[in-house]
Structure formats: C-alpha cells, structure tokens
Design a protein that fits this description.
By secondary structure, the protein is α/β, with parallel strands linked by helices. Helix content is about 35%, strand content about 20%. It is built from seven helices and eight strands. The protein starts with a helix and ends in a 6-residue tail after the last helix.
Length: about 200
C-alpha cells in the first residue's frame, strides 16, 4: 500500500506541474558538454568514441560506441571517408579509440588513423565470440565483436585482445614505415609491447 500511495502522490504532482515538467535521462545529467542545435534541441558531444573496424581493401565496416552508451548499428564506409570522420571527431574534442584485426591490408590504415589523432590497436586475428557461438561470420558481427573486445581491453582486461601494433609503433624499436618487417625474435620471446 505504501508504494501505491507514493506513486499516486508522484502522479498528482506531475499533473499539477503540467507542461513545465522536464524529463532527463541519466546520460543528460552526466554529460557536461551539451550544445544547442538550431531547433533548440540539446545535442550531446561524446567525450570518448570507441570503434571496432573490419577492414577490407575497398570498404571498412565500423561499429561505434559513444561514451558508455549502447553500440550503434554497424555501418559500411569508404576507408578515406571514415578517416575524415575520425579526424572531425578528434578536432571536435572527442578521444577516439579504434581497433582492427591484422590482415592482408597491412598497417597503412593504422598509420592513417594515428595521423588523424586516434588511438588505434591492431590485434591478432582470432575466432571472435559471435563466430564460435552462432557459426556466423559477417563484417557487421566482426566489427561489433572487435568493439566489445576493445571496450573490455580499455576497462583493464588485458586478455581481451592480443595487441600486434599500438599507436606508438607496430613493433617496439622498429619504425612503422612500409618497408620494415617484423623481427622474428619478438614473436618467439613475447617481447611485444603490452599497451
């Protein structure tokens, strides 16, 4: 009975206040960087953007998470257009973290993301969680699984991803220029930098 009375009192107060009542979500209260758009609607600028990328020669599929919100649906981009978007986010004051699996495309996209100001990780390819449980493999699911692993890694789970290259250099002590190759001793001794 006490809860019902409390709820009824709440509803009565709401109806007395009428249209002056405003509802806020938790995200609105926590985010301090809010801009007003032309229609007067508040638009929040994210402080941290995390991106999981599935990279191919002609396209990149990205799954993005703004601050701590639910990840957005995966989208396909032209690789250069996504780089321009990342640069805009960084110039707008957002911290951008990204990751993609090492593969045939090499490290050129890694170097370009770093030039744009993103913190990028190239990770060792492995069977991702969605492939193991659902026997599915799509670019969209891969990008989402990489994003989930990136978020876990950034929260402190250093086993979520095996880093092959970070924003500092693809290999410790080796310049990230295209002509350089991985020193084989690093693989055997486990001297790869843990970021």
């Amino acid at each position: 009975m006490g809860v019902e009375r409390l709820f009824k009192s709440f509803l009565d107060n709401m109806s007395r206040q009428g249209s002056n009542t405003r509802c806020y979500t938790v995200g609105d209260m926590q985010n301090k960087s809010v801009k007003q758009n032309s229609e007067g609607e508040a638009k929040a600028k994210p402080e941290v953007i995390k991106i999981g990328l599935d990279l191919h020669a002609r396209q990149v599929t990205e799954c993005r998470q703004l601050d701590g919100s639910t990840p957005k649906p995966a989208q396909k981009w032209d690789p250069w257009k996504l780089l321009n978007q990342v640069e805009e986010w960084v110039q707008g004051g957002s911290k951008v973290y990204s990751c993609y699996e090492a593969g045939a495309c090499g490290y050129w996209y890694h170097r370009e993301l770093i030039k744009c100001g993103a913190v990028n990780y190239v990770v060792a390819p492995r069977v991702l969680e969605n492939q193991r449980s659902k026997h599915q493999k799509t670019d969209r699911l891969d990008a989402r699984a990489l994003l989930d692993n990136l978020e876990s890694y950034l929260r402190g789970n250093r086993h979520a991803m095996s880093i092959v290259a970070s924003s500092r250099s693809p290999w410790p002590g080796v310049s990230p220029e295209p002509g350089n190759r991985r020193p084989w001793g690093l693989v055997a001794t486990g001297d790869l930098e843990a970021v």
